[in-house]
What does this fold into?
Amino acid sequence: LQLKTLLQQNHTKGSEVEQKRTQLLALQTDMERDQQQLKNWLVMQFTKVNNLRDRLPPPLAKQWQIMLQETDLAVASEGDKLALLLSLFIKLNEFDQRIAFVQSTIVTPDQHEKLVKQLYLGIARGWYISLDGQEVFEGLATDQGWIWQKNDALQPGDISAAIAMVEQQTEAAFIRLPLQINHNDALLNIEVGHE
It folds into this structure.
């Protein structure tokens, strides 16, 4: 009788242990599946980041490039990759929410380097004026990347006035900056696919 009771208790405890073991295996399988889904999602997001980078205003694209070069994605943990994605999109949002002024060297449409003053209105539009105040170009994001193009309606004085206001050299006032409407504007897709 004692032997039967002892065997039954062992069988019950064995069943409980087996049940716990099965639950832990199921949990481990779920965690491994979730980990693989996260890895696949991260690969997809960094592909989108690389596709988007060329369409950003050059100063922001350069910031992204530096941030991406600082992290070796091949060996980075998923947590580090998520932190990098968050940092990239914070920079994008900050740039998009303000008027930015930058003085830097650009490559002109005829492939010459030129020092210019640049004015950006969010991530989709920008203008530059040469330091001598003679050349003005309009920049815009397209599906083929960021481009600088001539806009004959754009006057150097307009861009100079806008830059002076941003630099707080003159009092703020309303000004008009002509925009060329690009047929790609309606099609430009800056979706990043957050799920």
Remarks:
- The two ends are 61 Å apart (CA to CA).
- The longest helix spans residues 2-53.
- Residues 46 and 85 are 8 Å apart (CA to CA).
- Residues 183-195 have pLDDT under 50 and may be disordered.
